[in-house]
Amino acid sequence: RRVLFRSPSIERLRALRNRFAHSVWLNPVPADRWDNGFSGSTLRAIANIFPMYDLTLEGLKKAVSRLNGGS
């Protein structure tokens, strides 16, 4: 566990993903802004680790479906 806290942030996210087989990322940034500017590269890096959904009612429904074994 100590290694987790000494690792760069992206490695911490990978460690979380490896620890929890069923996980998603709920993003408060609207989906239509995920590929804009500086934050876009960060969000792409996170999306390469976790399935990402926007933090809306529809996004929550999709995330729960994914966690329950859906696509």
Number of helices: 4
Assess the beta-strand content as a share of residues. 5-15%
Distance from first to last alpha carbon: 31 Å
SSE string, helices as H and strands as E: HHEHEH
Main-sheet strand order equals 1-2
Tertiary shape = flat
Largest sheet: 2 strands, parallel
Percent of residues in helical segments? 40-55%
Mean pLDDT: 86
- The assigned structural class equals mainly alpha
Got a strand count? 2
Radius of gyration: 13 Å
Residue runs with pLDDT of under 50 for 5 or more positions: none
Describe the structure.
By secondary structure, the protein is mainly alpha-helical. The protein has helices spanning about 1-5, 10-20, 35-45, 55-65, and strands at about 25, 50-55. The protein starts with a helix and ends with a helix. The mean pLDDT is about 85. Strands 1-2 form a two-stranded parallel sheet.
Task: Name the features.
71 residues, mainly alpha, 54% helix, flat
Question: What does the secondary structure layout of this molecule look like, with pairings?
Answer:
Elements: H1 2-6, H2 9-19, E1 25-27, H3 37-47, E2 52-54, H4 57-67
Parallel strand pairs: 1-2
